[in-house]
Structures are given as C-alpha cells and as structure tokens.
Automatic annotation (TrEMBL):
Domain of life: Bacteria
Organism expressing this protein natively: Rhodoblastus sphagnicola
Name recorded for this polypeptide: Uncharacterized protein
C-alpha cells in the first residue's frame, strides 16, 4: 500500500483522523472523560493537517457537554484555546468577531453553560479586537449564571 493511502491515525479505535468531526462525536457519544492523555491525542489528531472547521467546533461543544464536570484543566485549556483560534484568530478578517459568529457562539454556550464554556466566552472577548456590543453584554449576563458563579467562587 502506498504511503499516501495509509490511514492517518485512529484515536481509541473510533474514527480515522480524516473524519475529525466523527472522531469528536464518538468521544462525546461514549461520554469519554477528557483526561490529559486523551486531550494530547485529540490535539494531535485535530491539528495534524488542517485548522478546525465549524462542524468540528460544534462537535467540541458536544464533547464539552458530555464531560458533566469530569474534565480537568487540560481539557478546559484545550477547549478554550482551540475554539478561540477557530473563532477569533482564523476568522475573516482576523481578530474580528462578526455578528453571525457571535450569535452561533452564544447559541452553543446557552445549550449548556459550563465553567469551561464561560471561560471560552471570556477568552474570545479578550482576544477579539472587535466584537458586537450585544455580545459583550451577553457574556457579562452569563457571568451571573449560577454554574459560573459557583465555579468562580471555588476557584
């Protein structure tokens, strides 16, 4: 078999890395706890060749919802950095959070506002040079949500 025809990698035997969204969805469906070793392998699989696409970003949110508080700092850091890169740094034009992307992010965040999701909202706001004024207020309002306030009190 020619080297160009070899599968890239598999992660836990679920999906080949060429189907990165399927890989993330498999982890979420199986409620995999994202411990440090799994986070490292997922990082390698996602960033081997390409940047993150919107379907993969959606799958990362599903994986965050599946964590149910089990994931640690490595997962939160990966989740925040990866999605900030997708939303702010790789956006067109760079470092500008447009209305459509901000709306998508708020909808995803509202599906399950965890401390990691709030950390993402705050990080996106800090990294973007420009964001809709309504987004700033939306992030501020979500900072008052009970799960976020409880997590901040424990930190």
């Amino acid at each position: 078999m020619a080297s160009g025809n070899l599968p890239k990698h598999t992660l836990y035997g679920f999906e080949p890395a060429s189907d990165r969204r399927g890989l993330i969805a498999s982890l979420a469906q199986n409620a995999e706890a994202m411990v440090p070793g799994k986070v490292r392998q997922l990082r390698r699989a996602l960033f081997e060749d390409e940047v993150l696409a919107r379907p993969e970003a959606e799958a990362l949110f599903a994986l965050e919802r599946a964590q149910k508080g089990r994931a640690g700092r490595d997962w939160t850091k990966f989740f925040v950095e990866t999605l900030t890169d997708h939303l702010v740094w790789r956006g067109q034009p760079g470092k500008i959070l447009d209305h459509e992307t901000a709306r998508w992010l708020i909808v995803e965040a509202d599906r399950n506002l965890t401390p990691a999701v709030y950390a993402l909202l705050a990080h996106v706001l800090a990294e973007a040079e420009s964001a809709p004024a309504w987004f700033v207020e939306a992030v501020r309002a979500r900072g008052e949500a009970d799960p976020v306030r409880a997590a901040l009190a424990c930190a």
